[in-house]
């Protein structure tokens, strides 16, 4: 794990697949043809709300093994990054600036950005503010118009607990930190890390998001030209499939991939990881000047969705 500084705060990131940090660790003779290719295909993975870059470690390892240079990032207030208690430091636009700051730190002119939930909305802010830095996007479970009520109902009790029940949440954090990590599976630790951390900064983070811009509005999204793969699934009020479907129709170079469940990419990842890898191959195979090509015709788009989505 490495760190860089953004506006006086330290942010943590990890590289997979032959990036500069890996090459320094292995020595110059460890640079293989795959490493050289991976260095030219950067992919930044962004986690969900109150989670950390650890949620994407298995996916990062899989995609790095397929020839990509993968970087996972802890956004401010998450994981091993600094966790200030100032609510004004937390917003989707600021998170997007942190991703661009990471790209500047690593010397990346362009990258593909994949985000989940909060990370998906942060990626959309990059498309709104700095589209020239994006080679493409993978948007998993965005929270848009149809998910706002579900998000408010899901996270308001947590916000109240972290803010007004801080002593009790501190006790819970101490108890859960006493549970040895080796006793739990990977994603068990990822979930438990939500309550292992000190509650005060988490409350400030939620307040900053609740009172800020959650996502670019529909009028902006319709102008995004970045090639995008949108992942969604059914039966989730916080990340309704209608939001994923709406986004794929709004953006002229986006197409939709339906997951079988909320956890398919984590528990049975082969199908979705293969689709993401194929999308990355397509992005990097095209000349840069062709990145904003027209969306497939209705007939071709229907055929593609039929092959990429499970039948009802």
Structure description:
With 312 residues, the protein is an alpha/beta fold. It has one domain: Rossmann fold (3-Layer(aba) Sandwich). The protein contains 14 helices and eight strands. It has an eight-stranded mixed β-sheet with strand order 1-2-4-3-5-6-7-8, sandwiched between helices. Strand 7 (228-232), helix 11 (241-250) and strand 8 (254-258) form a beta-alpha-beta unit. Helix 7 packs antiparallel against helix 8 (186-196).
What percent strand?
Answer: 5-15%
Low-confidence stretches: 19-38, 289-312
Q: How widely separated are the two ends?
A: 42 Å
The CATH class is identified as Alpha Beta
Structural class: alpha/beta
What is the third-level CATH name, the topology?
A: Rossmann fold
CATH architecture: 3-Layer(aba) Sandwich
The CATH homology group name = Alpha/Beta hydrolase fold, catalytic domain
Order of neighbouring strands in the sheet with most strands: 1-2-4-3-5-6-7-8
* Number of separate structural domains: 1
Can you tell me the overall shape? globular
Order of helices and strands: EEHHEHEHEHEHHHHHEHEHHH
Q: How many E strands?
A: 8
């Amino acid at each position: 794990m490495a760190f860089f500084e953004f506006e006086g705060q330290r942010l943590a990131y990890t590289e997979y697949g032959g990036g500069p940090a890996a090459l320094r660790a292995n020595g110059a003779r460890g640079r293989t043809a795959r490493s050289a290719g991976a260095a030219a295909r950067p992919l930044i993975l962004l986690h969900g709300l109150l989670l950390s870059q650890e949620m994407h470690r298995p996916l990062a390892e899989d995609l790095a093994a397929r020839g990509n240079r993968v970087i996972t990032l802890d956004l401010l207030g998450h994981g091993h990054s600094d966790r200030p208690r100032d609510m004004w430091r937390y917003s989707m636009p600021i998170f997007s600036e942190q991703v661009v700051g990471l790209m500047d730190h690593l010397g990346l002119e362009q990258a593909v950005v994949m985000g989940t939930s909060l990370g998906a909305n942060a990626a959309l802010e990059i498309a709104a503010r700095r589209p020239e830095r994006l080679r493409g996007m993978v948007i998993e479970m965005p929270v848009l118009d149809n998910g706002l009520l579900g998000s408010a109902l899901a996270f308001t009790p947590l916000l109240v607990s972290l803010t007004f029940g801080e002593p009790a949440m501190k006790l819970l954090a101490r108890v859960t930190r006493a549970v040895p990590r080796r006793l739990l599976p990977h994603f068990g630790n990822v979930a438990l890390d939500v309550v292992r951390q000190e509650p005060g900064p988490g409350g400030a983070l939620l307040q900053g998001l609740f009172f800020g811009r959650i996502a670019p509005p529909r009028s902006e999204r319709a102008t995004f030209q970045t090639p995008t793969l949108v992942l969604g699934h059914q039966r989730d009020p916080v990340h309704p499939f209608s939001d994923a479907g709406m986004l794929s129709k709004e953006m002229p170079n986006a197409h939709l991939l339906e997951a079988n469940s909320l956890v398919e990419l984590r528990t049975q990842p082969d199908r979705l990881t293969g689709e993401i890898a194929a999308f990355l191959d397509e992005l990097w195979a095209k000349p840069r000047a062709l990145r904003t090509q027209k969306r497939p015709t209705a007939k071709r788009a229907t055929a593609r969705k039929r092959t990429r989505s499970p039948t009802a």
